[in-house]
Design goal:
- The two termini are 26 Å apart.
- It is built from two helices and 30 strands.
- Helices cover 2% and strands 47% of the residues.
- The strands form seven sheets. A five-stranded mixed β-sheet has the order 4-3-2-1-19, with no helix packed on it.
- The chain is globular and about 65 Å long.
- Bound molecules: beta-D-fructofuranose.
- Beta-D-fructofuranose binds next to β1, β5, β9, β13 and β17.
Length: 451
């Protein structure tokens, strides 16, 4: 099989991390991303830019936002200003408004007392090609001395008729409101109680998600933590709850003895971070649709060098499934296209169904050699992933060479779907109840099941 894998977006050159500013406009999915075009390691951050019509094949464009006097351009989001609230629209084309963090790298080096991360804004009058930074930047300055104050995520809240901004602030996320996209007033703070000691909070996302089989939605906060991943390093959790436009509260049914039970992982593997979702999706796409950075901060700068460094996961759509009345976020791969196109793109999905009362081994092969072994142990209902022979750093003993994923479902049969990519697999257990993203050093080509 040819190593042809465009669906896992990567930039043509340089370094890539978080997806930023995901927005759908006029038939086009925009994907902006944290990008160092000048080097293969993390460095001065820009927003790179790519577009797709089907979420399968991507075209990369020039850099959309580059560093300036206020600093590097960290993560953020884009919204469509349908009602011209910002009041800059100059044609029939709706204004796109980007929110991002200005990171003052010099001030960061001195650990400047007043903080060095501020929220800023830029807008585009031509559907995302050119961006104008707002003259009032930073539009939401650091309140003073908050070391980690970043990654603004903006959405419209219909119930209270306001724009909402979420900003990660150390070990919590802050909520702000605005009616003109320019002036923001703080309305609440969310932390997860016991979960709050899990490293720095980064890249919050808030969205509504449909509940399977009933005509209901829930609010979901997707929150990344570094460190604080389930295997160490970086990782992303979700919180299901209620949001009234001011305050986010976790739903009672998800709570065990502590404020948050430990099984709320957006992804159970080592390599899915800073997931974000597309704004303004078309009615024919069941929302929300997310994409994550397929990497881990533990080794992102030291993975084996290819012409690029860093890639995204496949896009995923989400629903909520109730299991014994407890809600879980479910993920499945999502494209805006037909099956033949998926095959043409060289993407392979292997579906495996097996009896959960019997142990089995699934080998994922690269040229006949085992790249990843997934061993299911029926007695403990546990999956053990072993990627030591294809570790992304080339080091067999490296981070998460072997890791366990305890199965949540107790259904009689396991439904497993494994998407093979160049340099990765993405496994979905029990129809997407748990997803496992695993970065590799080799291109995988086949799957073999043995009992
Ligand atoms: C998350 C993150 C963000 C920050 C960006 C910098 O991976 O650390 O919090 O905005 O990356 O590149």
């Amino acid at each position: 099989m040819p190593v042809y894998d465009p669906p896992h977006f990567r930039s043509q050159r340089g370094w890539l991390n978080d997806p930023n500013g995901l927005v759908y406009v006029d038939g086009v999915y925009h994907l902006f991303f944290q990008h160092n075009p000048g080097g293969n390691t993390w460095g001065p951050m820009n927003w790179g830019h790519a577009t797709s019509r089907d979420l399968l094949s991507w075209t990369e464009h020039g850099v959309a936002l580059e560093p300036d006097d206020l600093g590097w351009i960290f993560s953020g989001s884009v919204v469509v200003d349908h009602e011209n609230r910002l009041n800059v629209q100059d044609s029939a084309q709706k204004t796109l408004v980007a929110f991002f963090t200005h990171h003052d790298a010099e001030a960061a080096k001195r650990n400047a007392e007043g903080g060095f991360q501020h929220q800023s804004m830029a807008y585009s009058l031509d559907g995302g090609e050119h961006w104008i930074k707002h003259s009032a930047n930073p539009i939401l300055p650091n309140p003073g001395g908050v070391q980690d104050f970043r990654d603004p995520y903006v959405l419209w809240h219909p119930g209270s008729s306001a724009w909402i901004m979420l900003v990660s602030a150390g070990v919590c996320v802050e909520f702000y409101r605005s009616t003109d996209l320019l002036n923001w007033a703080k309305c609440s703070t969310f932390d997860a109680g016991e979960g709050a000691d899990a490293g720095v909070w980064e890249c919050p996302v808030l969205c509504t998600v449909p509940v399977e089989e009933v005509n209901e939605t829930r609010w979901v906060l997707i929150q990344s933590f570094m460190p604080g991943g389930r295997l160490g390093g970086s990782g992303t959790r979700y919180f299901i709850g209620c949001f009234d436009g001011y305050v986010f509260e976790v739903e009672r049914a998800r709570l065990g003895g502590s404020r948050e039970t430990p099984d709320n992982w957006y992804d159970w593997g080592p390599d899915n971070y800073a997931a974000n979702i597309w704004a303004n999706l078309p009615p024919h796409m069941p929302g929300p649709v997310s994409i994550g950075w397929m990497n881990n901060w533990v080794y992102a700068n030291t993975t084996k060098e290819t012409p690029f460094r860093g890639q995204m996961t496949l896009p995923r759509s989400h629903s909520i499934r109730l299991i014994d009345d407890k809600p879980y976020l479910v993920s499945e791969v999502a494209f805006d296209g037909v099956a033949e196109t998926i095959q043409e793109a060289g993407l392979v999905e292997e579906r495996i169904r097996f009896d959960a009362s019997k142990s089995c081994v699934i080998d994922i092969l690269c040229d006949g050699e085992i790249a990843v072994r997934v061993a299911f142990d029926a007695a403990s209902s546990n999956f053990r992933f072993d990627r030591k022979s294809s570790h992304p750093t080339g080091d067999g003993e490296g981070f998460a060479g072997q890791f366990d994923v305890p199965r949540i479902s107790s259904a009689d049969h396991v439904e497993l779907s494994i998407w093979l990519g160049a340099y990765c697999i993405e496994a979905f257990i029990d129809d997407g109840l748990q997803s496992v993203s695993v970065l590799l050093a080799s291109a995988v080509t086949a799957v073999k099941l043995t009992h």
